[in-house]
Write a structure and sequence with these properties.
By secondary structure, this protein is of the alpha/beta class. It contains 12 helices and 12 strands. The protein has 2 domains: 183 residues, Isopropylmalate Dehydrogenase (3-Layer(aba) Sandwich), CATH 3.40.718; 136 residues, Isopropylmalate Dehydrogenase (3-Layer(aba) Sandwich). The chain has a 12-stranded mixed sheet, with helices on both faces. The longest helix has 19 residues. It is globular, with a radius of gyration of 20 Å.
C-alpha cells in the first residue's frame, strides 16, 4: 500500500517555514508514516538549507503524480531577489498565500489526503492586499465551509475558540448562543475522532469570575449559559461557565478533555505557556483535513538554524488521525 500524501505548505518564504519544512523532509519517522509534499519554492528551500546548514531537498517534482517520496512540489511564486529572509514583504505574503491555495485545491481534488501548514505572516498578507487575517479564514472561505472553528491541541490542554482573529472589543457582540454551541459541537466531534470517547467539556466565561452572576458583565447569563444548557440537552458532558482565571489549573486540566474559549488569547496564552513546541492548530468543520504549526513566522530567527520543527512534526502526525 502506498502511504498517504500530505501537502505541507512552505509558509512565508521569509520566515522559519522553509527551515522546519527541510527538517520534515528528512525525518525518517515521518517518511514511514506518510509522503510529505512541500508546496513551495525549491530555490527558497535550497537557500534556507545553506543559511541553516541543513540538507537540501532530495526530490523536487513538477506534478503531484511524481511525488512517491518526500518531495518539494515546486510552485515558484517568488524569486530570491524579491525578498530578504527575516523581513516583512508583500511578495512573500502573496507567495505564501499561493502555496495555500494550491494545497487546498489539491486536497479538494483528492490528490492529497490532508494539508498541514507552516506559518504565514499576517502583516505580509495585508501588504499583498490579501484580506484574510489567517489560515483558518482562508480555508473556511476557499472550501465554502458552512461552519468552522479553530482547535488547539496538545497533550496538556485542548481548546476550541468561539472567536479568533478579531479585536478584543469586537468579541462580546460576536458571542451568540448558536455560535458557542456550534463551536462546542465541532470540538466534541474532533475529540471523539482523536480519542475514541465522549469528551468532558469545560466552557469558559468571558468576564472576570465568569461574570459573578451579572455583577461584571451579562454575556454569561445572556448567551454562554443558554448555550451550555442546549449542549446538555443534546447529551454533551459540559461544565460551565468556568471562571477563566482558574480554568487551566492542573487538576482542572486533568479532568477536562476540551475547553471552549470565547476569544483567541483566552486559550492561546495557557496553551503556549504549557506546551509551545508540541501544540497543533486544526481547522474543524472543513470538507478537508487541515492542521498547522502553532507558532508564527519568527522573523527574528529566520535563516539562523534555530527553529524547532516539533510542532510541524506533530501537526502532520495529527492530520493522519483524521484521514
Amino acid at each position: 500500500m502506498s502511504l498517504p500524501k500530505i501537502a505541507v505548505t512552505m509558509g512565508d518564504p521569509a520566515g522559519v517555514g522553509p527551515e522546519v519544512c527541510l527538517h520534515l523532509l528528512h525525518d525518517e519517522e515521518i517518511a514511514r508514516l506518510c509522503t510529505p509534499v512541500v508546496f513551495g519554492n525549491a530555490a527558497v528551500l535550497d537557500q534556507a538549507a545553506v543559511q541553516c546548514r541543513l540538507i537540501k531537498p532530495d526530490k523536487v517534482v513538477a506534478g503531484l503524480g511524481e511525488a512517491d517520496a518526500p518531495s518539494v512540489f515546486d510552485i515558484g511564486a517568488i524569486d530570491l531577489i524579491d525578498f530578504e529572509t527575516g523581513t516583512v514583504n508583500a511578495a512573500t505574503g502573496r507567495a505564501g498565500y499561493t502555496y495555500v491555495e494550491n494545497a487546498i485545491d489539491a486536497a479538494l481534488g483528492g490528490q492529497v489526503a490532508a494539508v498541514t501548514t507552516a506559518p504565514l505572516n499576517k502583516e505580509a498578507l495585508h501588504a499583498a492586499g490579501i484580506s484574510f487575517p489567517g489560515h483558518t479564514e482562508i480555508f473556511a472561505s476557499r472550501t465554502h465551509a458552512q461552519r468552522s472553528c479553530m482547535l488547539q491541541f496538545s497533550s496538556e490542554v485542548r481548546c476550541v475558540f468561539v472567536t479568533t482573529h478579531v479585536g478584543y472589543a469586537e468579541v462580546p457582540r460576536l458571542l451568540t448562543r448558536e455560535r458557542i454551541l456550534e463551536t462546542l459541537e465541532l470540538g466534541a466531534q474532533a475529540m471523539r475522532r482523536i480519542r475514541g470517547s465522549e469528551p468532558k467539556i469545560g466552557v469558559l466565561g468571558l468576564n472576570p469570575h465568569a461574570g459573578e452572576h451579572g455583577l461584571f458583565g451579562g454575556e454569561e447569563k445572556a448567551v454562554i449559559l443558554p448555550a451550555i444548557e442546549a449542549a446538555r440537552t443534546k447529551g454533551f458532558d459540559v461544565e460551565g461557565p468556568i471562571p477563566p482565571d482558574t480554568a487551566f489549573l492542573p487538576d482542572k486540566r486533568r479532568a477536562t478533555d476540551l475547553f471552549v474559549c470565547m476569544y483567541h488569547d483566552q486559550g492561546h496564552i495557557p496553551l503556549k505557556a504549557l506546551c509551545f513546541d508540541e501544540a497543533v492548530n486544526i481547522t474543524l468543520g472543513l470538507p478537508i483535513v487541515r492542521t498547522s504549526v502553532d507558532h508564527g513566522t519568527a522573523l527574528d530567527i529566520a535563516g539562523l538554524g534555530q527553529a524547532n520543527p516539533s510542532s510541524l512534526f506533530e501537526a502532520v502526525k495529527l492530520a493522519l488521525k483524521f484521514i
